[in-house]
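User: Before I run my own analysis I want an independent prediction to cross-check against. Here's the chain; please return only the structure tokens and, at the end, one sentence I can use as a sanity check.
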Amino acid sequence: MKRYYYRAVDHSGRIQQGVIRASNKQAYIKELDALGLQQLPYQLLQQIIACSGLTFYRPNWEPQSASLFFLHLSQLLTSGVPLLDALEELTRLEQGRRVRKALGVLREQVNQGDSLSDAMQSVPTLFKPNAIALVQAGESSAELARCLEDLSAELSWQADIAERIKTALAYPVMSGLALIGIFIFLLFYMVPSIEPFVRQHNTSLPIHTQLLLALSDGVRASGRNWLLILSLLVGVSCFACFISNTLKCGVNLFWLQHGPGRITLYLSVARYARTLGVLQNAGVSLVDSLSIAEAGINSAALRQQLEKTRAFVLQGFSLEEAMKTQSLLPPLFIRLVAAGESTGLLENAFNQASVQLQGTAKHKIERMEKLLGPAILCVLGVALAWLILAVLGPVYSGIATQGLAL
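Assistant: Structure tokens:
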């Protein structure tokens, strides 16, 4: 069935947007009439935006709210409430107008016969690929309620990790902005003001003062040009990554292999292992499990390597041998998978790998929190010491020299 993106007005005069699955154009128009909607012109640009999942009116759905939604949906399904009734009740209870409208589109798609995962794909502004993949795993294994509960726990955990990362980065970011502000004030105002006095009363300036004066002259003379060049370089790089998948994967690969990107890698592989554990527990085949779990990976480079892993498995290699050919997969993950294959308990190995990788990521985040504060203080201390010695040192020296001359 084809997807038809519509823009229509309802009986109350409100504009509604969404997607309807129908076999042909006539069936689509009949479905639109059945909903009580009158079609409005849908421009090509609007359709491209809708198909790509982009929107200027993205619903502001907090991760904790999404976690509660999936938890309540799981509880309702476990209690025997039909899926359509559960979605209708949760949609009615939603406070955000845009989120409620998106959930209404979701329910309508399910009412038309789509599975929950297919209906979620019709609302890409609300549901991320990893959530759709986990729901698809639950549908494939007939364990939808349990997978929804797992998804709720995962979203809650991701929200907690994101909050911790924001807290850890708040102090360095504020300190860096303060330092940049101090430098801008000194280079554009204070240094030019005291430069004539310093040069007049000091025949030989210290090297750190000469460096500061040269930096001030350079920034004031060509700072705008350098800023323009830097902006152009950043813009061209971003555009090149957007149009070139190879370049995008290369940049993403470099990020995942160094520094804070390792935390992102461990979290992504932990999510991948967790999805595989759920699928294996439900009896889904290994190849299908690998395919479904790949959809939940946002990193282009990691997803590419996981696709190569699945291709090797299809060629007859063991999962351990296939994973050893990929550079991004952590050795701990591969060792646990190898142990699971040898003992026939692959599901337990995936679950244990997920727990271990999450613990490793948590440890790295805690260490980053402890190291960032002292590191930033050291940088600030060195920078301020340089500024004080370079600016105030020659000033006091000139005042002392002038006092002796008098």
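Sanity check: Confidence is low (pLDDT under 50) at residues 43-57.
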